[in-house]
């Protein structure tokens, strides 16, 4: 009887497998409503491509079929902006707020809370909106597809006007006496996103370069324009653009193609008929002559206006569907500007025309743009800047572009194409995004993904004047270009804020009592909607895996640890496609405490200075020619997952093909042993450039700044980290930059001393990730370079870093939103880390804090939780509030005390958190992760214990954290990065306010 059962199971299994593979897709045939137009093997992405058209609607579908378990799906629509109101962006948020089959407030949040996804998001571009998902679990992948398809085609936005109010904008007024305000998630997101000069410069350049078509608009939305969107306009936008005839559907991975087509057709596309959407984009006519524009950005009244001018040059490349030209521009972008010693960058920096230069080739729009940006210049240098750009381009055309630098740039670009390492981002989605940018303008997906012929042609063109001709035609002699000047204006943001406030006040004064009461009633209705719990029966409609669907074991990572020439070598063997990944890790404890802040400066300078055997330009070329990249980095290992037992390192990380691995390691040693610090002027320019970059990024890194500042109040590691990467490090950079002309000798001597003490043999650990058959060969190369390092004895230092604990705010007039944090070191309070903390973190982040801070409060994000190293934190991102957010955080113990959840809801929380620990990794990322576990003494058994504790978490376990968090929050520190006015209004929370000006 048992044998018969086994036989039947085998028969059924083989039948299912055969059924999955049985369909032999033929061109011209129709499958589940989709006609196969073309089928072709694409060796570059190790897949077979299938291009379909949906017969009834004209929807386009492309599948990359392969054996990758990390399956991907995306549906995208051309969404053409017609103003700065950001309606496409608001729509991207809103369609995920309930649909026909899934009528809960936010299916997206429910899925984020509890699904085995490896990616789940949505994004708005200049002319397209995409909805991508990925999962390694077949059942979950189909669930995610179904939820997303229902969201985009049948959203609740047509029946529920609360969605636009929450996600987009609404007037906020809770009583007749209150101040009239504007709130909304996208409204506040864009207030933060558009705060920086860099964002403003980019937008103004686009607007000036494309005055006749959709690209002149900010697709994300200008805050003042967002609040013009009406409900009728919103619904009409969806009805027009979110139609199958306007869609681009993409699939990737090992999934059953026929089943995937069936899901897409049966409940979704079959319900529509073909229509002409009218989503074409007007072609921008070329200018007769170049244009110039001037705009202003805000600085605080405390700031000095000197050297605060930003310049940009944008060229429209009047070519569409030219993949060969796009590849050439990617190479030129690297060779001319975005590499060490690049001629255009060098000409600007060495003539002191700016502190930093960057460029970007923007090819995901109809007529691409080549963009150049110069930061921290002055107005009197404007003509010299324009002249230098033109003269440098003329010189390159006349005298030629360095042949070896071209070859090196092409070789490194080729390496990246073949490596296809996208870190934790799903490979399938990376391919899909790159392909769809071309597909939407008529390029075949097959041609977009196939790069071998283009690479071969570009290599042939090196020995011709091909690249020089491109520079001459598309840059030098291109009249369709714009030069933008961005000037600082003191208090501009405060003036605009005052104008908005007065305008709203006047609007309120002119309102009748009936109109005021209507706004108050709508606000009340919105808050009731946001606070209302979803119907349990509606929640059950959303698919949810069983715990039995999940692998309960954690993956083993076998790492080989051995001594080689007296140093530890950690090796992880896996399929790397003939690539060797090497890290040389040097302990930082050879650097005295008072000079720790020089470490990040040193890591920035290395690779950018001359060495014994190469100029810095030659070194850059050699690295590109023989490697996929060598970088100097900083990292910290936490031994036994403990903040108090931290081991900071400085490392050199390199990757190359096996045949070039010996050369790669020679170059790594060249950097670690033979760097020269004699070029005082270049070091000074690089310090100024680094300072400029750090200052510019402050507006984008508000959360990181506040988080690092918080950590510095909680642990020794936190102090070290903030001193070497946070706001304190920026203050250090400013100090040495301001006094460099007087103190250059002292700065350089300190750099030399740290360099000498840091990079020596007794301070070294090595990490290797490669294939087993290349292990011995690569190991021999590693052995030879160890002997080249200095081996003298070096004094080891113990750090006793001190900082007064205080509630702090960094106030900036350059930001319109807040980043609010509160946290503590729970291990100092006698609380130990367990896996159950992960589930509590999931509940707080995806439920309580998200609902209170984002949905009700209007911030872009609200989240928090426990780290395994000993920290608890809770906070907000791009938040219009400060005081109310801290009150929400302080109420966490009360929320947990009364926490209720059904078995199904608990299962969702557990699955959602476990999915974060089950993300596929690239070979390099997996190898580095495995070796870091070994170094940090984290065993397989400990990781399994954590997962078991997560799986076993109960409602009672969650409630038990109420008392713990009451204790934690009573001993917590507040850290905020926010708008000056908002911070000063809430000064009662802070022991110190630090004013930041760029």
TrEMBL record:
<dbReference type="Pfam" id="PF05193">
    <property type="entry name" value="Peptidase_M16_C"/>
</dbReference>
<feature type="coiled-coil region">
    <location>
        <begin position="494"/>
        <end position="524"/>
    </location>
</feature>
<dbReference type="InterPro" id="IPR055130">
    <property type="entry name" value="PreP_C"/>
</dbReference>
<dbReference type="InterPro" id="IPR011765">
    <property type="entry name" value="Pept_M16_N"/>
</dbReference>
<dbReference type="Pfam" id="PF08367">
    <property type="entry name" value="M16C_assoc"/>
</dbReference>
<dbReference type="GO" id="GO:0046872">
    <property type="term" value="F:metal ion binding"/>
</dbReference>
<dbReference type="GO" id="GO:0004222">
    <property type="term" value="F:metalloendopeptidase activity"/>
</dbReference>
<dbReference type="InterPro" id="IPR011249">
    <property type="entry name" value="Metalloenz_LuxS/M16"/>
</dbReference>
<feature type="domain" description="Peptidase M16C associated">
    <location>
        <begin position="486"/>
        <end position="736"/>
    </location>
</feature>
<dbReference type="InterPro" id="IPR013578">
    <property type="entry name" value="Peptidase_M16C_assoc"/>
</dbReference>
<dbReference type="GO" id="GO:0016485">
    <property type="term" value="P:protein processing"/>
</dbReference>
<dbReference type="Pfam" id="PF00675">
    <property type="entry name" value="Peptidase_M16"/>
</dbReference>
<dbReference type="Pfam" id="PF22516">
    <property type="entry name" value="PreP_C"/>
</dbReference>
<keyword id="KW-0175">Coiled coil</keyword>
<dbReference type="InterPro" id="IPR007863">
    <property type="entry name" value="Peptidase_M16_C"/>
</dbReference>
<protein>
    <submittedName>
        <fullName>Insulinase family protein</fullName>
    </submittedName>
</protein>
């Amino acid at each position: 009887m048992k044998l018969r059962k086994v036989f039947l199971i085998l028969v059924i299994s083989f039948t299912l497998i055969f059924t999955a593979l049985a369909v032999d897709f033929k061109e011209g045939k129709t499958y589940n409503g989709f006609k196969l137009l073309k089928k072709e093997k694409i060796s570059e992405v190790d897949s077979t491509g299938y291009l379909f058209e949906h017969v009834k609607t004209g929807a386009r579908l492309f599948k990359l079929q392969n054996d990758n378990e990390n399956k991907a799906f995306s549906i995208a629509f051309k969404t053409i902006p017609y103003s700065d109101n950001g309606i496409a962006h608001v729509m991207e948020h809103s369609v995920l707020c309930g649909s026909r089959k899934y009528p809960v407030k936010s299916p997206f949040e429910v899925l984020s809370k509890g699904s085995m996804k490896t990616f789940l998001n949505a994004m708005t571009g200049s002319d397209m909106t995409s909805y991508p998902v990925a999962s390694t679990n077949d059942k979950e992948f189909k669930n995610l597809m179904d939820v997303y398809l229902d969201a985009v085609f049948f959203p609740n936005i047509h029946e529920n006007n609360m969605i636009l109010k929450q996600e987009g904008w609404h007037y906020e007024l809770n009583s007749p006496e209150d101040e009239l305000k504007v709130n909304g998630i996208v409204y506040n997101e864009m207030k933060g996103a558009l705060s920086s000069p860099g964002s403003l410069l980019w937008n103004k350049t686009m607007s000036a370069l494309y005055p006749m078509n959709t690209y002149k608009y900010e697709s994300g939305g200008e805050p003042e324009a967002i609040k013009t969107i009406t409900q009728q306009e919103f619904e009409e936008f969806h009805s027009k653009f979110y139609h199958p005839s306007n869609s681009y559907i993409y699939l990737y991975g090992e999934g059953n193609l026929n089943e995937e087509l069936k899901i897409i057709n049966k409940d979704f596309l079959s319900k529509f008929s073909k229509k002409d959407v009218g989503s074409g984009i007007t072609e921008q006519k070329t200018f007769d002559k170049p244009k110039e524009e001037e705009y202003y950005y805000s600085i605080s009244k405390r700031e000095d206006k000197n050297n605060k001018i930003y310049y940009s040059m944008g060229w429209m490349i009047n070519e569409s569907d030219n993949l060969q030209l796009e590849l050439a521009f990617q190479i030129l972008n690297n060779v001319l500007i975005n590499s060490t010693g690049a001629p255009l960058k060098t000409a600007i920096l060495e003539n002191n025309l700016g502190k930093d230069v960057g460029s970007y080739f923007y090819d995901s729009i109809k007529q691409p743009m080549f963009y150049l940006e110069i930061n921290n210049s002055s107005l009197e240098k404007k003509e010299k800047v324009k002249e230098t750009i033109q003269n440098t381009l003329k010189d390159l055309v006349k005298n030629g572009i360095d042949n070896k630098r071209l070859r090196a740039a092409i070789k490194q670009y080729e390496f990246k194409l073949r490596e296809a390492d996208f870190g934790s981002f799903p490979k399938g989605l990376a391919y899909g995004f790159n392909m769809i940018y071309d597909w939407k303008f008529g390029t075949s997906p097959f041609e977009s993904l196939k790069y071998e012929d283009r690479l071969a042609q570009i290599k042939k063109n090196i020995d011709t004047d091909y690249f020089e001709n491109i520079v001459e035609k598309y840059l030098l002699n291109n009249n369709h270009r714009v030069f933008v000047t961005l000037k600082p204006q003191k208090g501009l943001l405060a003036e605009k804020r005052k104008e908005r406030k007065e305008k709203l006040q006047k609007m309120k004064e002119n309102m009748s009592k009936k109109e005021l009461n209507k706004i108050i009633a709508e606000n009340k209705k919105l808050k009731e909607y946001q606070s209302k719990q979803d119907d349990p029966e509606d929640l059950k409609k959303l698919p949810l895996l069983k715990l039995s669907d999940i692998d309960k074991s954690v993956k083993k990572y076998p790492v080989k640890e051995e001594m080689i020439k007296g140093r530890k070598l950690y090796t992880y063997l896996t399929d790397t496609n003939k690539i060797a990944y090497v890290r040389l890790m040097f302990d930082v404890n050879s650097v005295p405490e008072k000079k720790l802040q020089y470490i990040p400066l040193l890591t920035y300078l290395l690779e950018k200075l001359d060495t014994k055997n190469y100029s810095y330009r030659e070194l850059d070329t050699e690295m590109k020619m023989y490697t996929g990249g060598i970088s100097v980095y900083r990292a910290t290992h936490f031994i036994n997952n403990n903040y108090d037992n931290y081991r900071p390192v400085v490392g050199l990380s390199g990757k190359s093909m096996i045949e070039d691995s010996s050369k790669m390691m020679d170059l790594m040693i060249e950097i670690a042993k033979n760097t020269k610090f004699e070029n005082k002027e270049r070091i000074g320019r690089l310090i100024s450039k680094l300072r400029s970059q750090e200052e510019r990024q402050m507006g984008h890194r508000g959360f990181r700044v506040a988080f690092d500042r918080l950590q510095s109040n909680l642990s020794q590691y936190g102090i070290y980290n903030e001193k070497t990467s946070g706001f304190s490090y920026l203050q250090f950079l400013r100090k040495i930059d301001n006094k460099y002309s007087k103190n250059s000798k002292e700065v350089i001597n300190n750099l030399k001393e740290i360099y000498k003490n840091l990079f020596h043999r007794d301070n070294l650990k090595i990490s290797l990730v490669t294939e087993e058959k290349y292990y011995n060969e690569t190991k021999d190369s590693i052995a030879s370079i160890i002997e080249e390092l200095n081996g003298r004895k070096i004094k080891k230092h113990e750090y006793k870093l001190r900082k007064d604990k205080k509630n702090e705010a960094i106030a900036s007039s350059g930001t319109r939103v807040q980043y609010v944090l509160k946290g503590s070191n729970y291990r100092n309070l006698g609380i130990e880390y367990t896996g159950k903390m992960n589930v509590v973190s999931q509940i707080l982040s995806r439920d309580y804090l998200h609902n209170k801070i984002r949905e009700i409060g209007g911030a872009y994000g609200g989240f928090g939780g426990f780290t395994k190293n000993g920290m608890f934190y809770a906070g907000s991102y791009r938040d219009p509030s400060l005081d109310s957010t801290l009150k929400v955080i302080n109420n966490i113990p009360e929320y947990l005390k009364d926490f209720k959840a059904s078995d199904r809801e608990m299962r969702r929380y557990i699955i959602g958190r476990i999915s974060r620990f089950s993300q596929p990794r690239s070979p390099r990322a997996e190898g580095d992760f495995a070796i870091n576990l070994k170094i940090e003494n984290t065993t397989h058994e400990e990781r399994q214990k954590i997962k078991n504790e997560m799986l076993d978490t109960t409602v009672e376990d969650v409630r038990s954290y109420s008392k713990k968090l009451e204790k934690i929050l009573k001993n917590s520190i507040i850290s905020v990065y926010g708008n000056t006015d908002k911070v000063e209004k809430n000064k009662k929370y802070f022991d110190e306010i630090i004013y930041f000006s760029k």
